[in-house]
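Can you give me the bound-state structure? Components:
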Amino acid sequence: MKVVIDKERCMMSGECCYNHPWLFAFGDDDFPVVQSVEITSEQQRKEARQSVQVCPSGAISVIG
Amino acid sequence: MSGLTHEIDPREFDSPEFQSNPFPLYQRLRDHHPLFRDRFHNRWIISRYEDVNAAFQNNESFDRAMYQPDGPYVFGSSHVFGPNILEYGNSDRHRWLRNVVAGQFVGQGLVSFIPFVEQIAGELVERCSGEGEVELVQQFSNQFPIRVISNILGLPRADEEKFVVWYQALIAGLGFGGEHLARGIAARNEMWQYLEPLVADRLAHTKDDLLSKLCLAELDGVRMNMDEVKGFIALLLAAGGDTTDKAIANMWYHMLYTRPDQFEDVKKDPELWDNVFSEMMRFDPVVHVQSRFTTREVEMHGRVIPERAQVILSLGAGNRDERVFKNPDVFDIHREDLHMGRENRSARYKSDKQGHLGFGVGQHFCMGYAMARQEAVIACTRMMEVMKNPRPKFATHEGITSPNIDSGGFRSPRELWIQFDK
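Here's the bound-state model for the whole set.
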């Protein structure tokens, strides 16, 4: 499973970084960056899908 | 004048003058005591925009809860609501609980509820538009957000009048002692009894509502227990019912009494209600203070706050900081230095404008911020469609008041009479 962020759509709400800090962090330009972690457990997959739901701008998508 | 005039007597925070107009004292704090040691109330107060904003984002130094050897310090809501998310600090459990409901309030789930918000607003406006005048607080504001949140939870519409009574009793019980507290706890007990069969029902027959989500959410295979579910519902009803009601009243107060000139602009372009909401949240938000506890020594303005100290983040003061906002004491829905759209939990904006601090920032940012804005803007827009030529019934008004700013500083008008053409 892979998580990607569309910077054009992103409104910098910060929801992903605060809700799932193991998966997202603020980058130097204040946009969120996907952390380099393996998404393996069911809980992690669930949280990755949750981050899509909670993003207000619809900038996050999950592949795989 | 001697230097002593800048000294602050902490008892001023308990004075009626401060409660009706805290802004002059906020100015003295910002200018002369950016880190104020309040020995009388045993707390520290920070008041400049940058400091408050930074503290909200500094999870390593500031926590919502203070930890004791046997668990988190009681934040001060569980005796009324039951166990709830406010009691958790910067923990994984807090994050998990928040995520259970976040999709509904923050993300894509919100959109699906907008037609319903429109419908409730329409029903209530209809109900109180017959007489050519309305007392906004009792007849509309107190009725509206509670109906939205109880329906998102999936509670029966036939019982809405009960929820209207309960949420007000819960909130009063939280802010005051004595008989208010007794009434708050009585309301909680009554509500818990009411909820029990509904929770049992959702455990047996899942529905597509928030109540079912709360009942069934699992962290590592473990669900919340019955008390935790009921405590969460009590919190959502109280928090979802309150503050947005007061925000609507504050918006109307400022249009009718502070800026009737700009109200003319809003009448011509109702989309400006979004700006009214933003500027109200900056100029005089419903909540003025948030409390934190230091998890380690924090150095600030040449002094050191010790570990485990209470720190008041005065967002009401930060919002009026002239270091950030030009002419901060002017209510201006067209101001160019304030981000006017939906708030960001990160306090970062693509436009490089500054956001208000009215919802807090960061980890404990108001959960219902997007819902609150939607509800407030839809309600005000709907009122203007039906209540033509709205105007104040009385030429003067006592203003926005706070019965007890120390307990969280919920500020709003006690009542607000509006006349209109039928």
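A couple of observations. The mean pLDDT of chain B is 91. Residues 3-421 of chain B form a domain with the Cytochrome p450 fold (CATH 1.10.630.10).
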